Amino acid sequence: MEGMDKAVSGASLKDFATAVSDLILPRHCFVCGKRLTLSERYLCLECRSDLPYTFFWDQSHNPMADKYNARIRDQVPHGVEEAYGHAAALLYYNSESGYKNIPQALKYRFALGLGREFADRLGERLASSPEFKDVDCVIPVPLHWRRRRGRGYNQAAVIARRVALALGARFCPEGLRRLRYTKSQTSVGMEKKASNVSDAFRVLHRVEARHILLIDDTFTTGSTLAACHKALREVYPPSVRISVATLSYVGP
Ligand SMILES: [Zn+2]
């Protein structure tokens, strides 16, 4: 009884603290900007009930996987057998929609708690998918050290760590290294970006793995993930499966 009282007073103390801090610094929904109520966290109830899920984790062939595999096919040497790579994203990323703010806030606004919550959602879905549940190593797309120092963290690593936990797989942040400092994708054209990034990655530490999952924040053209795939394939034989997953996918 005493323990329960303690738990109740602990919870109401936390609510009280949230209420006071809401008065001083109101919290707003990351998607629509509406002021959040005491019980809401990061997103308002309406925006939470309307999340634009892709359901790609339920489809072994989907638009993201098709784009990714087309990129991989372009770079595989003639005669080499490359299995169809699985790919899934949690949410659609549409420039017209406020849901694009979720990956952007993780990338540019230090919204780590928000990023972790959605990474957990992605991880749960991948763990329930026959294509992803046997993943044993999760590698984030690395940032160049100069960019990571500027930002303070790698957003792909924030996602990858939580996804690895959900899959019961190893989190391998050193699985790939970014060797070249490339301009951000917003400042160069898409095709230029692909040639810019194609030799930017290298495996420095080989890990024991049968199914590697590459993680990035957003899938746009797939050129960055294909470049990572290429670097991994220089070290890992075709018997090691390489799949990809992201928080968002640029689409409808
Ligand atoms: Zn909202």
Explain what you see:
It is a single chain. With 252 residues, this protein is an alpha/beta fold. The protein has a five-stranded parallel β-sheet with strand order 1-7-6-2-3, sandwiched between helices. A two-stranded antiparallel ribbon has the order 4-5. Helix 4 packs across helix 5 (112-127) and helix 5 packs parallel to helix 7. The model has no long low-confidence stretch (mean pLDDT 89). It is 41% helix and 14% strand. The protein starts with a helix and ends with a strand. The structure holds zinc ion. Zinc ion binds at residues 29, 31-32, 34, 43-44, 46-47.
**How confident overall, as mean pLDDT?**
89
What's the arrangement of strands in the largest beta sheet?
Answer: 1-7-6-2-3
Radius of gyration, CA atoms, in whole angstroms: 20 Å
Give the structural class.
alpha/beta
Uncertain residue segments: none
Distance between the termini: 53 Å
Helix content: 40-55%
Number of H- or I-type helical stretches? 9
What is the chain-wise order of helices and strands?
HHHEHHEHHEEHEEHE
Which band does the percent of strand residues land in? 5-15%
Global outline: elongated
Ligands (ions, cofactors included): zinc ion
